[in-house]
Amino acid sequence: xKSQDIKPRxxxxxxxxxxxxxxIWEALIPVIALIIMLFFNVFFVYGDDALSGxxxxxxxxxxxxxxxxxxxxxxxxxxxxxxxxxxxxxxxxAVLILLMVGSLAGTWLISGIIPTMIYYGLQILNPTxxxxxxxxxxxxxxxxxxxxxxxxxxxxxxxxxxxxxLGISAGMxxxAVLSGAYFGDKMSPLSDTTNLAPAMAGAELxxxxxxxxxxxxxxxxxxxxxxxxxxxxxxxxxxxxxxxKLQAIDGAFNIxxxxxIVPVVVIYMITKKTPPLVALLVGTLLGAIAAIIAQPGIVAxxxxxxxxxxxxxxxxVMNAMTVDSAVETSSAELNDLFSAGxxxxxxxxxxxxxxxMVFGGVMDAIGALARxxxxxxxxxxxxxxxxxxxVASCLALNVTASDQYLALVVPGKMFKKAYDDKxxxxxxxxxxxxxxGTVTSVLVPWNTCGAYQSGVLGVPVVDYFFFAVFxxxxxxxxxxxxxxxxxxxQLTEKED
Length: 496
Prior knowledge:
single chain, mainly alpha, 2 domains, two-stranded antiparallel ribbon, globular
C-alpha cells in the first residue's frame, strides 16, 4: 500500500504528522533505542523497582533520541513541544479517572466493602474443586482490589500452602492463582493496567472493559474447564483450613452483606452508561458514608484519633481517599491486602502516562508514528495481520523491555494510528494490548511481573508456566476473534 493511499480516520482535533524526509529506518531509531535502554535499566540495574522513576526517565531519553532524529529531518523544537502538549492534554480524562479510582479504593477498604468480598470469597473453598476455587477466589479479590500483585502476595500465598496440604503441586496452584488474579486485574476498573490500556488507545474505560469481556470471558472459561478436569483427575488429601483468615477479617471489620449495596449501585450506574467519573465519584462518596456507619473505629484509627467525631470522621475519610491507609488484622498474611494508596498511590502510573505521552508526542511530531503506521499497514494488509502485529509487539516488549506497563504504553502509542487508518474503533487496540501485554508479562522470568510473582509465591516461572492457562490462552483468543472477524468494532461516522 502506498503512503498516499493511506487516509487517516481520526477525530478532527487530532492529526497525523507526515514527514516525507523521514524513512522507516530513521523512524525506528527511537524505538530501538528505547527498547535497549529499558532492557538494560530493568534487567541489569533496577529490576522490580524500575517503575519507581527510572523507566519514566528512560521514556524521556527515548523522546530525546526522537527529537535528535527530528532535528536532522527539519522538525522544529516548537513543533515537537506543541505535539507533546496535545498528547498530554488528551490524557486528562484518564488521569482524573485514575485519581478517582485511588480514592474509591481507599474508601472501599476502610468501609469494609473489599474485606467483605474477600471474606465471602474465601468460604467457597472445597477440596474436590480446589483449583477452580483458587481461580474464583483470586478473581473476586483481584476485581475488588484491582491488583494481581496484591492478590498473589496475600491470598495467593495462603492458597499455595493450602494446596500443599492437599497434595497438589505448587505449580498447579500457582497457575490457578495467577489465572484468577490476572482475570480480575484485567476486568477491574480499579486496575492501573485496565486504565492504562484505553488511555493509550484513546478508548473509554468502561467501553474497554465491556469490549474486553468478549475475549476475556471465553479465556477464563477455558481455564476453569482445564482446572476442573485437573481437579477430578488428581488425588487430594486433607481439608483446607481458612478459619484463622476468616477470624482475622471478622475481628478487624464489621462484615455485612449490606455493604454490597455500594458496589451494586456503582455497577448499576455503569450499566446505565453513567460517565465513569460520575460513577466513581458516587462510589467513593457512598464508600465514605458506609465507612462512617459500618466501621467507625477504623475511620477514627485512620485519622489517628481515639474516637469518632465530626473532625476525625472527616480526616479519616479524606486520608483514605488521598494517601496511604491500612487496617491491621491478627493475620500477618492479610495485612498487606488491607492497605490502599489513595490518590497518591496512582501518581506513579500517572507519571508513566505523562512521560509516555512525551515520547509519543515527539514521535508523532517528527512523523515517525505516521511512517511506522504506513509500514505496518503495508505489511499487515488484513485486519488479522494488524492484530497479530500488535500481539507480537506486546510479547516482544514483555521479553525485551521486561515490563508490562511498557508493553502497553509503547505499542499502544505506536499502533493507534494504524488502527485509525483501518477504521477500527480504539477498543480493538486497548483489548488487544491487555490480552497480549498485561497477562503474558507473568510468563517471562526476567519480566518484573514474572520475577515478582515467582518470588512471592515461591514457585519458579517454569513450574507454573503451563498451568497459568488464562495467561497464555488470552493472546490466542484475541487472534482467534480477529481471524474470524468476531466482535471487531468499526468506527462509526459520528466517532470518526
